[in-house]
């Protein structure tokens, strides 16, 4: 399977600039996710790769094969050899499972016996062998999604492109589907570009993630890098649940409004306007007083029971802080919490959302 390279790809729809000179590289066999809010340009990027959109400028290459280069090269979608799974699955209701999967092979004039053998091979791959003669209305949503995936894999694509394929599934089925798809992708080794706005999907399935906003790349990294070392405040706030607190930095410490003592942080340039980010699961709740750095006593404003833990909103000076704990504490009670300096990220004005 080839790798994928986009160089300075830009796309506008009228006056609306959707992609701003986007660069990305997906390694051979990699599961690469485009993550971001609606309207950030991730689907436009995917359709540009597939050939369903023509960028205004830039270059797209599958390995050594250039499929788009400004106005000089623009390979038609059917000649790019991409397998595409749409958000709506787009299976034909009047065709059987077999005929849906066989359709791209028929377009390529694959002989009947070879076509039948390949259809059965990919149906076994997606665990739908016994459903070959059924029609879409006789299948569940998850099974229809597998039919769409089998159709995309039928002609052995160079790239597999997935546009939020699980968005129509319920939460439990979505979780099972992403585990199954990731195992399948690793088994067949196809280079995959996956579009989603669901952070859990991105974190659990990807080799690497590209976080996008307003047509620009905010960060590219492994799931662990994106989650634990966000490049800016937008990435920190978009991926996972994070507390973002406003404060003032001085002498390597940060003062929060209404808090009598400063917080120690890994590093912070002096300034009157900084933000601290710390994830709720990194906050330590102590059963008694502690001498650890950044330990404060706070008051519980509200609590919610979430099965395996409680979610508390506490007053940290003049701001709210979300804390997780397995211990039940009443509203209005006091908690001793520790904000470990190593778990705090400090963002200045240059890291602000734009």
Provide a descriptive summary of the structure in words.
The chain is α+β, with helices and mostly antiparallel strands. It has two domains: 4-233, Rossmann fold; 241-351, OB fold (Dihydrolipoamide Acetyltransferase, E2P) (Beta Barrel). The chain is 24% helix and 35% strand. A six-stranded mixed sheet has the order 7-8-9-3-10-11, with helices on both faces. β18 (310-316) and β19 form a beta hairpin. It starts with a strand and ends in a 7-residue tail after the last strand.
What characteristics describe this protein?
354 residues; alpha+beta; Rossmann fold; OB fold (Dihydrolipoamide Acetyltransferase, E2P); 2 domains; 5-stranded antiparallel beta sheet; elongated
Residue windows where pLDDT falls under 50 for at least 5 positions: none
**What is the oligomeric state here?**
single chain
Number of separate strands: 21
Q: How many domain regions?
A: 2
